[in-house]
Design a protein that fits this description.
single chain, 308 residues, alpha+beta, Archaeosine Trna-guanine Transglycosylase, Chain: A, domain 4, 3 domains, 9-stranded mixed sheet, 5-stranded mixed sheet
Length: 308
């Protein structure tokens, strides 16, 4: 049987999308993929429908680097509304408990240290975590009981930045992989004895991708309808290797690059050559060739980039 021809054009690189409110990450990805008429695309970390901000989208060969973005640090700005706990831990859900208590600035700042560093966190039952092969949020929406286990997550920083009124507080946080801001809001509310949920959430950074680099769907639509729409869109893409900023680069020559692309190992020579390295980015003339390991002075390709 003949292989089905993949629809779309070969597009490679990263787009930093400013995801709009009330849109799923999957829907945002589909819209962007259509605008670029891209054959292959994926995103670097789900955002809730009610969240806005940085949603990195990988095209083509950049999809091979998504895992490095997923493992990167993330930054958020979020508003907590006190007095109500909801089943989704955000404003979308049903109210499950209420409280008349409202915390003071001093009380909030006193509990913040309890939520910084490595902490145990129970993920929201409306989350993308898989349970019995299904997404937890799908099971929860179907009315099934979802049992998730607490896990250790890393909160690098948590700051109270504003208190617009007695019912709301605005925070900024920097987190590691797997941390849920909705769970932070819920747990702070419980410790303060006032209960709470997320009223607004914006992700401002994912790994090397920042809000300053983000572009809206409206702007992309505008570029798409220009005379040189395809070229205008591709000008906003970041290079494939943007996601690999923290990985050491190793320049190789043309012959070595040819061997690596074929999946062959390369013996490294010279006093500056690494002997052992878990991950390096082999480059030729500044362009990524492959993600490799170095074992006993031998360069071994793991993920080859086909960018020629």
């Amino acid at each position: 049987m003949a292989r089905r021809k993949r629809r779309g054009e070969p597009v490679h690189g990263w787009l930093v999308l400013d995801k709009p409110y009330d849109m799923t990450s999957t829907a945002a990805l589909g819209t962007v993929k259509r605008l670029f008429n891209a054959a292959k695309a994926g995103h670097g970390g789900t955002l809730d429908p009610l969240a806005t901000g940085v949603l990195p989208i990988a095209f083509g060969e950049a999809t091979k680097t998504v895992q490095y973005v997923m493992e990167g640090e993330k930054a958020y700005r979020f508003t907590v509304r006190w007095g109500e706990e909801r089943d989704t831990d955000d404003a979308e859900g049903e109210v499950t408990a209420t409280s008349e208590k409202r915390p003071t600035r001093e009380e909030i700042e006193a509990v913040i240290p309890d939520f910084v560093g490595e902490i145990s966190q129970l993920p929201p039952k409306f989350s993308a975590i898989k349970v019995r092969g299904e997404r937890a949020y799908d099971l929860a929406r179907d009315g099934e009981e979802v049992e998730l286990k607490p896990r250790l997550v890393l909160i690098h920083d948590l700051r109270l930045v504003d208190m617009p009124d007695e019912n709301t507080a605005v925070f900024e946080a920097e987190t590691g992989k797997g941390a849920y801001v909705r769970a932070l809001a819920r747990d702070m509310g419980r410790e303060l004895g006032c209960l709470g949920h997320i009223a607004a959430l914006t992700r401002t950074r994912v790994g090397p991708f920042r809000m300053e680099d983000a572009i809206s769907l409206e702007k992309l639509e505008e570029l798409r309808h220009k005379d040189a729409g395809r070229e205008a869109l591709r000008e906003v893409l970041l290079p494939v290797e943007t996601a690999l900023d923290d990985i050491p680069a190793l320049a190789v020559d043309r012959n070595q690059a040819t061997r690596i692309v074929r999946g062959q190992q390369v013996i490294l020579r010279g006093g500056d050559a690494p002997v052992n390295e878990e991950t390096v980015l082999a480059t030729w003339k500044g362009k990524p060739v492959a993600l490799c390991t170095v074992e006993a002075g031998i360069l071994k390709p793991r993920r080859v980039f086909n960018l020629s």
